[in-house]
Structures are given as C-alpha cells and as structure tokens.
Predict the structure.
Amino acid sequence: MTEQAKWPYPSRVEETTRLEADVLVLGGGIAGCMAAIAAAKRGQSVILVDKGAVRRSGAGGSGCDHWESAATNPCSKVTPEELLQAMLDDNDGYNNAISHYIECREGWDRLLDIEGMGGKIRDTEDEFAGADFRDEESKLLFAYDYVNRFTIRIWGTTFKPAMERECRRLGVRLVERVMVTSLLTEGGRNGGRCVGATGVHTRDGGFYVFSAKATVMALSRPARIWLFSSAHPGQCEFRPMSCIGDGHAMGWRAGAEFNMMEKSVRAEFSSAGRSFPPYSTGNNHNTWYPASLIDAEGREIPYADRDGDLLPDFAHRGRPAPGQKFFLKGGNIEQAKYEFDGPETLPYEKLKELGYKLPFYADLSAMPELERKVIWGMMVGQEGKTQVPVYRNFTQRGFDPERDVLQCYGVGWTSAEFLPQERQLFGLPGGFMNDWDLMTNLEGLFVGGDALFASNCYGHAAATGSYAGRKAAAYAGARTAAVLPWEPQIRAEMERVYAPLSGDSVNGVGWKELNEAIAKAMQNYCAEQKRDELLLSGVELLERYQREVVPHCYAANPHELMRLLEVFDILTVAQMILQACLARRQSCEKLEFYRTDGEGAMEPFICIRHDGEKVLRREVPLDYAGNIRENYEKYNQDYIAERAGEVEA
C-alpha cells in the first residue's frame, strides 16, 4: 500500500481469515437474507457474506413497492398454476418454470414470514380505507388487477432491516464488506463439488476463505456490459452499482452451467449517464400504474383494454377486459402476449394519428384522491429506486401531485431513446441453470434470486432464496463434515486478486477505462443483429483484453481493487454472452435475439459451460421441468407438511 494513497483503514492485505459453517450464503440481498434465515431455522450454522452492509445491500435493499406473485393470498382469484402458465405463455416458454412456480406458490408464505420479522404488508392505519384496491378485512392493498388481487402493494422500505434483524436473531454470522471472488471446488477441479468460496475485504484488503457443506449463490445479475459512463458511473444501470454479476463470472470459471445468456434487451430502464434516472419522470408502468397521462395541450390520453377498446372510466384500468380472466402488469410486461396484456395507453403512432402532441405528462391531479396518494405517497415512496431520488427530493423541492405534472418519457415517446446496440440484461435474463432443488450442476451449489436464469422481481428473489436455503440446509444436514478446500486453488486466487495492487501506478489501466472498453466492444460486436463474424471478432478482442490489458491494471487501495475485480468479472460475463450467442443458431423474438445468418428450426434452451479448456453446449427442452405441480409436491413434501402444521397451529 503506498503512502500517497492515504487510505484511512489499516492494511490486512494477504492476511487470511478462515471461516467454516454448514451453509455458506453468497450475497446479502433479498434472496441471500431469506436463504440464510431458512437455513438457520433448520438448525444449520450459517455464514452470509456481502459486499456491502446487509441492512440495505442488494437490488432490493432500499425498498420495493409491490409483490407481484402472491397467488395464494386469501383474496387471490388466480391459482399459482394459472399465474405461472401466463408467465410461460408471455415468453413462449423461454422462462424458468421451476423458479417462477416457487415464486407463485410460496410468495405469499414469504410475505407472511417477513411480516413476522417486522416488515409492513398491510394498511394497518386505515390510510386507504374504502379504496377499490383495498381489502377491508385483511387490510391488504392490491396493484394492477384489482379484481383478481394477486399483486400486493407493500411497504418495502421496511423489509431489508427486518431481514437483517432476523438473521442476527437466528445467529447467522454476517461477514460484511467482503467481496466474494471465487468458488472453491473439491480438489480444485472444474465442475467439482462446491466446498466454499474466497473473498477480499473492500476496506482493509484482508483475504477470506470460507468452507461449507453447502453453498447458496445469491449474488446479482450482470450489469454494465454494454452501458457505462466513466463520468457518471453510478448511473449506468437500473440496479445498484455493486450489483454486476460477480456470481455469474465465478460460476463460469468453476464450470457451472448457464442458460439464456444470449438474451439481452434494448436498454430502457437505465440511466447510462445520458438519460433520465429510472422512474424520475411520470409514466404509466409498474410504480406509476395506472397514472393518468396528458399531452402537451392538456388532453387526457385514453387507456385501452386487451381488445383495443377504450376504457369508459378510471375504475376500468384495474379490471380485466370482458372474457379476460386476469392480466399481468408490473413484472412480465415485456412483449406481453395478447391474452394477458393489461389496460394500456394506445400506441404512440395511434395517438399521433388522433392529434395528441408530445411531450406527454403524468397527471396525478386528475385521479381519485386515494389512487393519487397510493402512487405518489406509497408506490413512489416505497420503491427503492425512487424513494430518495424522486419522492423525497421532489417533495422537498415543492412538487405537489394535486397541482403539478411530471414529464413522461417512455419507449416510443422519448427523444432520448436508446440505440439498438445499447443493451442490458433486463426482463428475465440469463443465469445459472437449476434443477428442482435449485441446485446447479456443481454438487452442493444452490442458487436463488437474480443468479437464476430468467430471474425477475423482489418476490421471486425472496421465494427462491428461501427455497434454496432450505434445500441447502437439508443437503448440509446429510453430510458429516465439510470438504477441506484445495490449498493450491486458494493460493492461485490470492495471486490473481492481489496482482493489481502491485501494478504500475503511473501507466497502469484503471477500472473505468477497462469497463468502458468492454462496453464499446460489446456495442460493436454483440449488438441487436448477430452474425458469426461479428461475434468472433468480439471474442478475439475480449481475449486480447484478458491477455494484454488485465495484467497491466492497477488499483491504489482495497476499494479500487474491488471495482477492478468487478470489471474483471464483467469481462468474463461479456465473454460468456458472446459464447452463448455463438451457440444459438436461430433468431428468437422472445429472447430478443436476432441473427442475420440464422438457420434451422426454432431452438429450445441452449445451456453452456466452460470445462476449463473449451465451451460446451447442450440443448434442453423448454418443458424440462415436467409436470409443475406434481414435481413441486414430489420434491417438497416436508415443506407442505410444515406449512400445514403452521396453519393448524
């Protein structure tokens, strides 16, 4: 550590701390906390490792405004099976049937768990008494489809602190501000049983070795692959800056199998340094639904139902169309299928024909009082990406939803629309392949939340994290002792991790420069239209970065080291994406994957992994999960009995 760095923390670089537990949880976000809680409740010793402070870390750490898939709540008129089928149909089967059925079937259970920890899920103060979206008996508030009532409005800012308290109450050991850098496998073998992980402290640089009988991967999905601004690095993606897909990268290096990594969507929910921060302007999606919109001359923009018929009044925005059982809103809205599409404003081209003029504005003043209040006071106030930057800041500066309007920027309406080459991993992206135990192909490595392929929302993270935690606990409970890590693998990882600290402080490459170079390479060679020549050029360029740039990278302190290690992982994920794109030979609309040289019939899932020498590819049927309800009940008899006992008690 150089004197010039003036780093305020004592240096522990190359000092090693070794910790052991029955279950090791990587990532302290929503999925990680719920996994740790589930494993600890089943009598296993648990270590949870997080890059930040668990109380507010992760993509959902600062809050959430709705819980999408509480299909078993007492007011729901939709079954878990019906809701899952809609999700599958919405994406022509390119979805994770196992994880989303867990979400639909156990989502309400997890809400009750969180309520028991101290999270708020009901309108206990009767603030919204009498509203169309409120159930007077249960005091639950519903979003989007007010008739079928399977999406619940929540006070999500209360959730993460409640989870942290519960972890501590149960004796979970929280190891905070430690970045996980690699998975340890039995004998150091690629594809071998997972026996732990390594990490580096982001403030003092100390090295950590974790050993466990079972490991739960609960780190975030990748980000900053195509989009990065060195001037505004904190506004480059929809999720927090620290959520960049470390788990994907270390899983790839260890031989884990991944699915749907070729999927990327045109950037919409990103700041990227040149657009508006997400949800800081009015719109009629998710958090803002069903906000009224007006055009530049104050004319209200009409809503239409699934069949294109204009809705006669505001109340119909929360009701299915005639003959429509229910509609989706808030989660699976990308490329929504006709049968499940919800009430929506007319397409911009149609609005232009009818004489509506840009710009458009969200006009909460024209809405019923409780509808206005639930959007501005609760939805915007509880959503983590809007609670401080939008709700608090705008309110302090005088914004009054009864009087003021907010300019609306949406797809097709904005002068700052993203270019086709500006992509991101949003809307059910790729991730770890899983079985019915949410275990990967690496024995002992379970996965939950955003690390799963086709991951989605807050409820999905909580439900799958808890499920993975209880499966990991059962696996650990059946083993007498953890397998000791392989020392040469640990030494090699220490050498890799610490190399940038001894780099050239004058001529060395920094993390921002490398991240920007990767993003530009992906925009050039892995944009909207794919072709082998382009993809192979991208592979060659990123391999050159690996050989020629990475050895010359420099970090002045543990924080910069963390950022640089993140970008090394971004580089690995970018290489994974290119390989997945090469593996898929045919265009696929639902994956937003388009080839100019496509050939052959429509392909199923394409799973890839690296065996240490080459990339292996295999095809998996879209219906690989089998009969969903039967298989769920086959693999979860203990849980079903446990919940039945709790209900009886």
Summary: The chain has two domains: 1-63+160-265+429-649, 121-145+276-417. Confidence is low (pLDDT under 50) at residues 331-336. The longest helix spans residues 558-583. Residues 346 and 646 are 47 Å apart (CA to CA).
